[in-house]
Write a sequence for this structure.
């Protein structure tokens, strides 16, 4: 039988195991004896205990830029740590409201940060599970009368204990159609955000201008969200850093010349329409890999490790971005 | 007379904290939970009414407990039980099932004797609650 040791026998809760589970549940309660008023505790130790630094380190290492976002995350973490310390002295702290809205251009890392946020809140003991349930309008809004409420409630139940991440939340509300079922979904969301604050954190994400008009037409939603975090666009240096991280992860490297071309590519691409920050960087690298691969296929010589992992300037120069601009220079 | 059906039924009624712990145990084992209710206490009544659909893909017990509480609110004088289903191949059966609410007053059962041919006697259990039509048993509560 390929079963985990926790389910030997008939898979029933045996009395012995049950008792063990209860003991484990009682332990933290015992540990949380109220400290005397003159006791001193080290916040650094508390910090180490939660393992929160690991999350911060991976945030810093894997996410380039986003300074305001990281600052806000540090502030939230500090608040929760201090609340933990306060509760050890028996000081009552009201549970902070941590519903958030992430606004920013496409590809600025909203989903990635939401995942880290779920992990961090779990480590700090704010969330019981720390999983992320990512949904869009389709998952919340039904197709006929009476379909929306059960659908939304099911998603909310799935998200309990973790983070509910609603991508492109403004699609929930359609101003042009007053019979749209999105409004019903918003009402249920609001109710749960208020009444089940200890069970889940709701994060709404979307582009800045459309989220703003969404909040204007749903003031109740705006006031229930404590943290409006704006994700800034990446600078050229940051985009380059992101590109390098992605290449490393894929096991590719640049020649120095290619690095320069890549930077120039990013500079040009940034000015063009439909630029999606990190996502565009990823696409650029994907296409460079394609060109690299077809270049490899056309050579008759034997190829080694270096050839297979090194991107050259021509892999980027083949891009439409360069083609268009050279057209412009020739014509203009 | 206290009905003893399902797991834990010989123990005092579980508190919400204990129920939460049991639900979490089920969810940690990947058993989806469902809530059912009935006002027919007969032990052979295995088909209880479903309170909503079974709940799949849940991670935390709070979602299930919210449904239990919603059912308690709508059916304050019914029996409510919680089932956890083990869908693993080779099991495919209810792994845990326990009562999370019972009516405030449980009148119990009467033993009926029926004379059959040749002076044989047939015995059957008759719940006093079943004298009233469904929906009006147990203090006339719906």
């Amino acid at each position: 039988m390929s079963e985990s040791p926790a389910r030997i026998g008939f898979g029933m809760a045996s009395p012995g195991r049950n008792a063990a589970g209860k003991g484990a549940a009682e332990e933290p309660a015992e540990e949380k004896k109220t400290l005397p008023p003159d006791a001193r505790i080290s916040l650094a130790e508390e910090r180490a205990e939660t393992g929160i630094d690991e999350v911060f380190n991976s945030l810093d290492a894997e996410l380039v830029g986003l300074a305001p976002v990281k600052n806000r995350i540090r502030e939230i973490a500090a608040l929760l740590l201090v609340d933990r310390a306060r509760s050890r002295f028996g000081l009552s702290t009201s549970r902070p409201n941590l519903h958030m809205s992430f606004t920013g251009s496409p590809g600025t890392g909203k989903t990635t940060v939401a995942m880290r946020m779920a992990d961090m809140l779990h480590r700090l003991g704010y969330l019981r599970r720390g999983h992320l349930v990512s949904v869009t309008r389709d998952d919340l809004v039904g197709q006929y009368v009476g379909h929306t409420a059960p659908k939304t409630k099911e998603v909310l139940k799935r998200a309990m204990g973790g983070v509910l991440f609603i991508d492109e939340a403004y699609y929930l509300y359609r101003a042009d159609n007053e019979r749209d079922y999105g409004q019903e979904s918003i009402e249920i969301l609001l109710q749960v955000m208020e009444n089940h604050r200890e069970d889940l954190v709701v994060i709404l994400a979307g582009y800045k201008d459309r989220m703003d008009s969404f909040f204007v037409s749903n003031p109740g939603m705006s006031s229930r969200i404590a943290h409006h975090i704006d994700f800034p666009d990446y600078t050229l240096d940051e985009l380059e850093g992101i590109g390098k991280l992605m290449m490393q992860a894929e096991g590719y490297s640049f020649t120095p010349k290619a690095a320069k071309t890549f930077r120039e590519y990013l500079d040009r691409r940034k000015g063009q329409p439909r630029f999606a920050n990190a996502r565009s960087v990823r696409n650029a690298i994907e296409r460079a890999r394609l060109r690299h691969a077809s270049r490899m296929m056309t050579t008759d010589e034997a190829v080694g490790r270096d050839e297979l992992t090194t991107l050259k300037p021509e892999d980027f120069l083949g891009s439409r971005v360069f083609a268009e601009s050279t057209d412009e220079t020739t014509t203009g | 007379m206290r009905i003893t059906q399902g797991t834990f039924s010989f123990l005092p009624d579980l508190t919400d904290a204990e129920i939460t712990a049991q639900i979490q145990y089920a969810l940690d084992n990947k058993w989806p939970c469902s809530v059912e209710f009935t006002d027919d206490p007969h032990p052979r009544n295995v088909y209880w009414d479903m309170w909503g659909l079974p709940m799949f893909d849940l991670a935390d017990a709070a979602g299930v407990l919210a449904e239990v509480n919603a059912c308690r609110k709508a059916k304050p004088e019914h029996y409510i039980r919680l089932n956890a289903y083990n869908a693993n191949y080779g099991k495919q059966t209810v792994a845990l099932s326990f009562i999370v609410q019972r009516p405030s007053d449980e009148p119990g059962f009467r033993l009926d004797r029926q004379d059959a041919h040749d002076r044989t006697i047939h015995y059957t259990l008759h719940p006093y609650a079943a004298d009233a039509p469904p929906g009006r048993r147990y203090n006339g509560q719906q």
Notes: Chain A has a mean pLDDT of 83.
